[in-house]
Amino acid sequence: APAASARGLIKTYGQGDTLVHALRGIDLDLARGQFTAIMGPSGSGKSTLMHCLAGLDRASGGTLEVGGTQLGTLDDNALTIFRRRHIGFVFQSFNLLPMLTAQQNILLPLELAGHRIDDTVRERAQSLAGTLGLTARLDHRPSALSGGQQQRVAIARALITQPDLLFADEPTGNLDSAASADVLDHLRRSTREFGQTVVMITHDQAAATYADDVILMQDGRIV
Ligand code: ADP
Ligand code: ADP
């Protein structure tokens, strides 16, 4: 089965005569381990599509199956649990906690989930940091890291729970081109090495070349 599958997905904001048709019938299959870039002009529905796929927002119509679960059948609680178990996020602004070291930031999702932080878990964080080229930076606070390093910490933090799908919203929007290439390379590697399914919104043509597939959106549709 695909990692995610949408049929006739519709999202309408507002009501009465102020309706905004953000998604006008999306059909989409994301294969497991596929790295997909979503591109398109501002207002074309990229964020709305990502938010629906990630279970952050509910569709108004159509069906959406992610990891074998029909998201429309979940109540709000179940949707939150689904997100914690299966979904990771990376944002344009790295959203690291400034008082915590890189390693503490990476471990945070496990701590928040009530996981005991023992040697096994610390080793997992260190091994993941190793694959992201962060071994020498683990004891540093975010302010002592470059932008690219901070984003790689954010990726490690998103991967520590081993999510099936990783969503990245403009992950290179705050990075120079060398750091961007590095971050994109690591995103692509996580699909190859861990079988992660990665969906990235980007405005950057160069970033899109790292993806297996590019979805171009316009006016709520995939064109
Ligand atoms: P993109 O990410 O491609 O810029 P969005 O998904 O953010 O596009 O927006 C698609 C359309 O939906 C736009 O017309 C936008 O103004 C509208 N929209 C997005 N979020 C909301 C919201 N919460 N309430 C009302 N309209 C919204
Ligand atoms: P190791 O033999 O050290 O476990 P792996 O290549 O299997 O090496 O994994 C490297 C790191 O990535 C480990 O810390 C592992 O826990 C973590 N990892 C493994 N699978 C996933 C996954 N699906 N998503 C995120 N991280 C993962």
From TrEMBL:
Residues 4-223 form the ABC transporter domain. InterPro entries: AAA+_ATPase, ABC_transporter-like_ATP-bd, ABC_transporter-like_CS, ABC_transpr_LolD-like, MacB-like_ATP-bd, P-loop_NTPase. One of its GO terms (molecular function) is ATP binding. The keyword Cell membrane applies. Keywords: ATP-binding, Cell inner membrane, Cell membrane, Membrane, Nucleotide-binding, Translocase, Transport. SUPFAM superfamilies: P-loop containing nucleoside triphosphate hydrolases. GO terms for cellular component: membrane protein complex; plasma membrane. Belongs to the ABC transporter superfamily. Macrolide exporter (TC 3.A.1.122) family. This is ABC transporter ATP-binding protein. It comes from Rhizobium vallis. The lineage of its organism: Bacteria, Pseudomonadati, Pseudomonadota, Alphaproteobacteria, Hyphomicrobiales.
